[in-house]
């Protein structure tokens, strides 16, 4: 298990991509701990985020920032 820091996506770069709201209940069954690229809060725990749908965006519950999985992770 590792840590993945997401990359902040500016509003004008969303380009109609699907946005998933995150919250305290975002706990997976094994994977990485995922952190907001804007405020650094842990927004998902044990999520297999690297194997999840590409191009999905994640909205941080704390700061409202939009994040994506970095391409090089
Ligand atoms: Zn945040």
Strand/helix succession:
EEEEEEE
Count of the domains:
1
Distance between the termini: 13 Å
Give the uncertain stretches in residue-range form.
Answer: none
Helix content: under 10%
What coarse outline follows from CA principal-axis ratios?
A: globular
Radius of gyration: 11 Å
Strand-pairing-aware structural class: mainly beta
**Biggest sheet: strand arrangement:** 2-7-6-3
Q: Please count the beta strands (DSSP E, at least 2 residues each).
A: 7
Global mean pLDDT: 88
Q: Figure out the total of helices.
A: 0
Roughly what fraction of the amino acids lie in strands? 25-35%
Largest beta sheet, briefly? 4 strands, mixed
Bound molecules: zinc ion
Question: Which features would summarize this protein structure in a list?
Answer:
73 residues; binds zinc ion; 7 strands; single chain; mainly beta
List the helices and strands and how they pair.
Layout (H helix, E strand, L loop, with lengths): L2 E3 L1 E2 L10 E3 L10 E4 L6 E6 L9 E3 L6 E3 L5
Parallel strand pairs: 1-4, 3-6
Antiparallel strand pairs: 2-7, 4-5, 6-7
This protein binds zinc ion.
